[in-house]
């Protein structure tokens, strides 16, 4: 049991994937049990509430989620929410999120959408009693240049999120 970093953007030039990679690296310095899953590398079926659950990729996603104590969901903001691929992943893996510690890192086009991950945070909290880490990364395009995160504040926030994920997850593990 350890950590899972989920990169949910399907864009090959994704900025949230750069956040995910940075968090993956920071968590890797704290724990040797960190799994990185990039949805561009998987053929994920659409959740249909039926046959999709037995698809081999769904089974793989369920395993990855259920094996983790702490999960960092890295996603783009689309239409004032996380993207549909992130939502679909949650639909496919459902109750396997129960009691997980969850953090968020989002890439967005504008400052006005900064609370957009709250609806998925609320649903994870209310549906599956997830412990939401009250520190998240929200980065605009200006924080990146090419394949790099160039904004030092965003780099600091990715480190802080990784440390907070580790602190909360390990504390809960020690007391369960
Ligand atoms: C379909 C679509 C909807 C979007 N909706 C929003 C939005 O509601 N708020 C926002 O700030 N940015 C929005 N954006 C901009 C993306 O969040 C931005 O491009 C971000 O970098 C995407 O993450 P990614 O680079 O990891 O794929 C939207 C982009 C697309 C393609």
In short:
It contains five helices and nine strands.
Descriptive report:
This protein has 176 residues and is of the alpha/beta class. It has a single domain (2-174), classed as Flavodoxin domain (Rossmann fold, 3-Layer(aba) Sandwich). Helix content is 40%, strand content 24%. The protein contains five helices and nine strands; from the N terminus they run βαβαββαβαββββα. The strands form two sheets. Strands 1, 2, 3, 4, 5, 6 and 7 form a seven-stranded mixed sheet that branches. A two-stranded antiparallel ribbon has the order 8-9. A hairpin with a 2-residue loop joins strand 8 and strand 9. Helix 1 (16-30) packs across helix 5 (152-174). The longest helix has 23 residues, at 152-174. It is globular, with a radius of gyration of 15 Å. The two termini are 13 Å apart. The mean pLDDT is 97. Flavin mononucleotide is lined by residues 9, 11, 14-17, 76-80, 107-110, 113, 141.
């Amino acid at each position: 049991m350890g950590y899972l970093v989920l990169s949910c953007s399907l864009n090959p030039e994704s900025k949230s994937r750069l956040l995910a990679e940075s968090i993956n690296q920071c968590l890797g310095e704290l724990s040797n049990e960190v799994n990185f899953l990039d949805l561009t590398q998987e053929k994920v079926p659409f959740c249909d509430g039926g046959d999709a659950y037995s698809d081999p990729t769904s089974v793989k996603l369920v395993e990855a989620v259920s094996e983790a104590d702490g999960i960092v969901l890295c996603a783009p903001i689309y239409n004032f929410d996380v993207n549909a691929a992130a939502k679909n992943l949650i639909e496919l893996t459902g109750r396997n999120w129960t009691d997980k510690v969850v953090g968020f890192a989002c890439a967005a086009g504008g400052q006005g959408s900064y609370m957009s991950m709250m609806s998925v945070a609320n649903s994870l909290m209310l549906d599956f009693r997830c412990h939401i880490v009250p520190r998240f990364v929200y980065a605009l395009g200006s924080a990146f240049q090419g394949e790099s995160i160039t904004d030092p504040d965003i780099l600091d926030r990715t480190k802080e999120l990784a440390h907070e994920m580790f602190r909360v997850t390990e504390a809960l593990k020690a007391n369960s």
